[in-house]
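Private note to self, pasted from the team thread so I don't lose it. Backbone tokens:
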């Protein structure tokens, strides 16, 4: 007992896994380098020079290896110099004239900055990747000897596969046997399932709701509509932050100028101003240190990572600084409807029995019949009955008529629940003075109830708008941002939802390629365009937009494609993200102006011979620390 308790209390002492060590190797190296520098600095006053110099050299190697390797590889690949090489040269230069501590500190600060950047980006990527759900990887192939599970990628055109209720369709094909209702919202954005029978087309990634299907494969796995959408996403080029592009363009030219000037400083002052050779080399090394644009490079990344971390704590995941920067410049934003502005699940909005005193009895029978169906509309009616504390009745001979409705018997009476054609079109359309037409004009789906061929009630259902959607749209419009809804639903439903939410405009019956084209059209009229969606059908538009925002409960393709992910499907967070973006851009501008000013002051002071190396390192590293701290203000 005591031994078990002791072992349990020591579980936290277990060694980290090799994968964890590999993931944090840069951070471990930077911290190790810092500790070695502290030991070496202490050893300068207590140990032999060979000991503390060895510690400094080890600190140089451990802390600077990753950055030196990165700098050399980038120089060879891009054929241009970079700040990593400049920092390494500055550190080696300091050490070459005996200033080991100053050189080591340069290495440590730069290594730590790079390690923190890598760690934060890996953490963000892991959080996003954990949300992804896998698409079907296997199919139930019909063979001469029976059935066999096979990898989807091995399916050939003409193969026949069995798709059971509740399974996702693994490949594009045509139905050769059976009928069912399919939820195609991932592809088309249509909120309600579609009924299909023989010769009907099915698409990979859609959900088979209530019937078994035998499907003949019409396309190989790499040519399905699902894969085409993914390919469109993969082909979308990623853009770098304008501020980052400025730094990168500036960096290459700046490094060349600094190295050229340092080269001249190594001998010209001796001949022009009569400086001693020691003073000339000393000033050249100071110039190499103070001119290194550490603070300038640190102007953007710490602020960006802080903003990313703040967003993550508040349920907003950013995939990079470019998306943060673009958010504050948005002039127009498009929204998908189903699952984004709406909940993506139908709810009963109206229940109208033929007589009010029959309300409870009709609801009891209907909910009992629908309880044996897994159709989304049936489940919505059951939930409605449960909310109204309705008791279930004993029904018999319940049958699911795919694409039409459900029938059953209660007290030897025949009950039908479904479309107008199923219960009797004439009786349905004339029920309560054509009330169904009025409800349909409001974007609602109408379900009729018939008892012994007489229509006795109707249900109106609707994919209800999220409570927070109106608030989010109102906030965006108050900031002067144009809002538009792009949906695969019909015009009547789209209009009703757009008016309820408060959209500036809407476009109905949009397929994925049409949504993509609409985003391109918006970009012709607005400088920065955003897109908010959750389905596979939204992925191309999310990729094309300057900023793509995905709902956290959306499909894996949408989550992978988007630049920003709203973890809790909280639309008002878009406004909050915009505020973070504006604050980040303001801090970045402050940092850039400050860092350039400090570098210029240090360079001038060095030429005037009023700056020594320790003060140069303090000014250089001090400005870098101040810039980083300013960026970290975003964490509040």
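Design output:
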């Amino acid at each position: 007992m005591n031994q078990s308790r002791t072992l349990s209390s020591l579980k936290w002492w277990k060694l980290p896994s090799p994968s964890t060590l590999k993931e944090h190797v840069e951070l471990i190296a930077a911290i190790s380098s810092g500790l070695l520098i502290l030991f070496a600095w202490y050893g300068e006053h207590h140990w032999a020079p060979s000991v503390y110099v060895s510690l400094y050299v080890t600190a140089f190697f451990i802390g600077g290896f990753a950055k030196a390797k990165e700098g050399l590889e980038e120089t060879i690949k891009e054929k241009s110099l970079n700040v990593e090489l400049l920092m390494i040269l500055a550190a080696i230069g300091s050490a070459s004239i005996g200033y080991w501590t100053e050189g080591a500190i340069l290495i440590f600060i730069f290594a730590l900055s790079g390690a923190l950047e890598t760690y934060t980006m890996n953490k963000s990527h892991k959080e996003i990747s954990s949300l992804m759900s896998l698409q079907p990887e296997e199919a139930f192939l019909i063979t001469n000897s029976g059935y066999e599970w096979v990898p989807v990628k091995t399916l050939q055109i003409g193969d026949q596969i069995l798709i059971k209720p509740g399974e996702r369709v693994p490949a594009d094909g045509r139905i050769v046997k059976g009928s069912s209702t399919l939820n195609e919202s991932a592809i088309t954005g249509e909120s309600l399932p579609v009924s299909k029978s023989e010769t009907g087309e099915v698409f990979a990634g859609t959900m088979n709701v209530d019937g078994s299907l035998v499907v003949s494969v019409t396309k190989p796995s790499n040519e399905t509509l699902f894969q085409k959408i993914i390919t469109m996403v993969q082909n979308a080029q990623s853009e770098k932050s304008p501020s980052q592009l400025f730094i990168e363009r500036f960096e290459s030219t700046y490094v060349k100028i600094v190295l050229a000037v340092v080269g001249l400083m190594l001998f010209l002052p001796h001949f022009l101003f009569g400086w001693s050779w020691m003073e000339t080399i000393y000033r050249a090394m100071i110039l190499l240190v103070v001119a290194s644009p550490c603070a300038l490079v640190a102007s953007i990344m710490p602020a960006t990572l802080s903003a990313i971390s703040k967003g993550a704590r508040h349920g907003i995941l950013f995939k990079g600084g470019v998306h943060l920067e673009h958010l504050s410049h948005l002039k127009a934003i498009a929204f998908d409807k189903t699952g984004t502005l709406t909940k993506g699940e139908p709810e009963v909005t109206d229940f109208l029995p033929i007589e009010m005193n029959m309300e409870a009895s009709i609801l009891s029978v209907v909910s009992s019949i629908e309880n044996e169906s897994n159709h989304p509309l049936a489940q919505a009616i059951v939930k409605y009955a449960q909310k109204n504390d309705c008791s279930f009745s004993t029904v018999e001979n319940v049958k699911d008529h795919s694409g039409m409705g459900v029938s059953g018997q209660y007290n030897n009476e025949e009950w039908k629940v479904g479309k107008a054609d199923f219960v009797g079109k004439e009786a349905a359309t004339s029920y309560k003075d054509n009330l169904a037409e009025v409800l349909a004009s409001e974007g609602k789906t109408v379900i009729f109830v018939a008892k012994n061929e007489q229509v006795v009630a109707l249900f109106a259902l609707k994919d209800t708008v999220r409570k927070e959607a109106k608030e989010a749209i109102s906030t965006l419009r108050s900031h002067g941002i144009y809002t538009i809804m792009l949906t695969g639903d019909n015009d009547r439903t789209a209009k009703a939802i757009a008016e309820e939410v408060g959209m500036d405009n809407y476009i109905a019956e949009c397929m994925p390629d049409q949504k993509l084209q609409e985003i391109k059209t918006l970009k012709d009229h607005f400088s920065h365009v955003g897109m908010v969606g959750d389905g596979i059908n939204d992925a191309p538009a999310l990729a094309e937009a300057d900023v793509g925002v995905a709902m956290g409960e959306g499909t894996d393709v949408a989550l992978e494609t988007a630049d920003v992910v709203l973890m809790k499907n909280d639309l008002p967070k878009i406004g909050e993200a915009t505020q973070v973006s504006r604050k980040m851009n303001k801090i970045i501008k402050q940092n850039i102006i400050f860092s350039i000013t400090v570098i210029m002051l240090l360079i001038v002071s060095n030429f005037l011979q009023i700056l020594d190396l320790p003060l140069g390192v303090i000014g250089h590293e001090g400005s870098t620390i101040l810039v980083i701290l300013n960026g970290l203000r975003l964490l509040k």
